[in-house]
Amino acid sequence: MADADGHPGRPGLLGFTAGGREPEVRAVRHHLQQLRAGRGGVLLVEGEAGSGRSTLLGHAVSEAAGLTVRHAAADEFSPHFPLQVLQDALEDTGLATIDDVLSRVAGLTASGPVLLCVDDLQWADRTTILAWQRLSRLARSAPLLLVGAHRPAPHREDLPMLRRALAGAGAEVLTLGPLPETAVDTLVSTVVGTVVGTRVGACADTARLRALAARAGGNPRYLADVIDLAGPGTAETPGTPGLPPGLAERLEHRLAFLGAPTRRLLGTAALLGDRFSVADLAALTALPVTELLPMLDEARSTGLLAEQQTHLAFRHPILRDALAERVPAGARILLHRQAAHDLARAGSRPGVVCEQLLAALDPATPVADWIITWLLETGTALITANPAGAELLLRAALRSAPSSNPQDALAVLLAQALFHQGRTTETRSLAGPVLRATRDADVIAAMSWILTWADPTGREATDAAADVVRTSVLRRVLAAPDLSALGAQRLRATLARRLEDAGDHEGAVSIAAPVVESGSDPLAVAVGLGLGHDDTDIERALGLTTGITDPAASPVRRWLYRRRTARLTGPAAREAARDLLTEAERSGSAVAIDTARVISADLLYRHGDWDRALELLAATASLSPRDHHCRWGLKALITLHRGDIATAAREIGTDGTGEHLTLARALLAEQRGHPEEALAVLTAVPVAPALWRTALTRLRLTLTGDEIPADGPEDLPDDDPLTSAQHLENRALAHARRGDLAQARTAHNRAGELYLALGAQGELHRLDTRLKPYGVHRRRGPRRPGSGWPSLTPAEVSIAQLVAEGHTNADIAARLFVSRRTVEGHVSHVLAKLGLRSRVELARDAGRRSAERTAALAG
Description:
By secondary structure, the protein is mainly α. The protein is built from 43 helices and 8 strands. The strands form 2 sheets. It has a 5-stranded parallel β-sheet with strand order 2-3-4-1-5, sandwiched between helices. The chain has a 3-stranded antiparallel β-sheet with strand order 6-8-7. α5 (126-141) links the parallel β3 and β4 (144-150).
């Protein structure tokens, strides 16, 4: 008996030796063992065409040594000849009735165990189906194993009835689904690996074979076709796109069992891609859905199509490839072009129409007027669905647009598409010439809006686009009589954002006030609300941006999250930073993700979680210049706090600006013994950031002998241990200078404890050095033990508590802004220090410790 791909003796191609059908093989062997022990049974194998049913039956026959074996297969002519397939199997053409069949089989079982196999029961006549049901009763009391196989098509009513009756009576039903991906991968590796000295061993050819095999959808027969025509020893033209020669024809032939209308419908559906909606198919065929349903039901029942939520999809995408390629290339382009027109006219989703237009795109052919009109009408929605595809169509349309008016509008859409893909440099390059040439106020408003949100730092570079969108120019455009209402809303929001970035908060709020009052454009209103000081305004603003498809919605949300993060403190600030990072990851923009990581790292730095901050910084790469300087400044600051001057000096370098990098340069000069130089670095900036306050106070106290700082211990920030320690250090020196050594020692000890907890050896060394001349020495605390809960670091305690609460490593990594590998390392250290073996033991021990502490407090 040949296997499902038509090649005798090659069961490996069907996954039997690659782990794909091992459970089914074990089931067959079990039934054969039972039969040899004198116990009968019934096994029904079902699966789509090419799933390996015939091979599995052949496997049963090949392992039935010592048994009486009878087998046959029905075919398309069997329905016209009652009981013929059983006559063939039992080698007796005189069997005219069901009783004759029963008598014949009973006679065989009287001599010993019998294996009776019938393949392709879907073609069997009704009498044979009834006889099979009667034979199943005989199998309950006689050493008879019935093994039947069928596929879903053609559909018939009596076969499902037989299946229900057999299953109800205890028969085992094996449904052959697709081969697992691991089995397919192993099979391809085996096929490639067994061929020595052929070009298929090359990486490119192997990758191509794997890609084709993956599109077979786990069907053994289609997989075998791929290996036959694209595997070792096959001839092909290198670099030729599409399927290997002959594969499309062979795969199309595999669909001969379908009705002609269904085959034609699948050919049309293939134009829509691997996945399509019934509505789009109806628009393309000009047929009502009621006429499509019977054909779609046939394709679904045979396993060719599968439901994916509201859509249908080819279960074996390689069949879709074959159906599409069987149409000549020239005709296929025309079909895609006509399909795009019909789908656009029917109101199909822009992404679907775009796929058809891209398939028909020809650089030598001008873009039709209707396509330009369609792009102008649906451009924003298309960019959200498929920004890369929209870019290709918009570039082609710009080459064909008849006048500057649609060209400007198309250029705005192209800028949106580039911006949506995170290509901000190209966005600015495109915007510059358009803004210089246009006099259209709405185009200026739209481009300015895009440029504002395309600049990840909020501070545009000096270029032609920046010259046009200066605040003075935007104010003039705002007064233009031809500016639309939407354009005015966006322009006001753009101007407000730029004024805010320039430090003119009152001006920003004033220019945005009419936008907030009108409420006509949600994104512009969100920007206006985001400028306020009330936290509820930001929450309202975030709510307004939900569900908006405009490409600027995501950067507006990120801007709002950044502002919320900056306003909050403690756990609330960390939660806001997590929201920012989640939004950035949802956008898919590498720059946005890394910017969010730097913001989170800055927050962790201020909260004293330096290891986590460094881990986030190490994961960043695609940074804007501003964030790049912040990243290196944070790394240098942490390194300096820990006392590694040489490494910090290398990280600081000589280039770059920003509050973190500037502070790091000042601290480096101070640690090298040059406080005057350090103070000069910080005072060169007219308005010092809050981050520099304690350093400035310390340097002035050192150099000028200023009086004690105004901030008392009760004013120290709870969520910024470094700043608290530096405040205490300054107070200790001021008290020591005034001779109040008791107060100095108190402040000194508290500062030292905080520095120790942070691991800030550089800060600790400066603290001790400054107070030593006054005879003020720090009280030495006990060394941390090597085991038990007291041996855990603050980071390890946090992770241990989260593990005890039942959080997974992935959850903990997300909460703490670190990688899963870092969490795994901390968990291992915690378990080792506590002498525990599992997370369960850790949870139990943490609960015991918590109960003991509660009891101690209560006592």
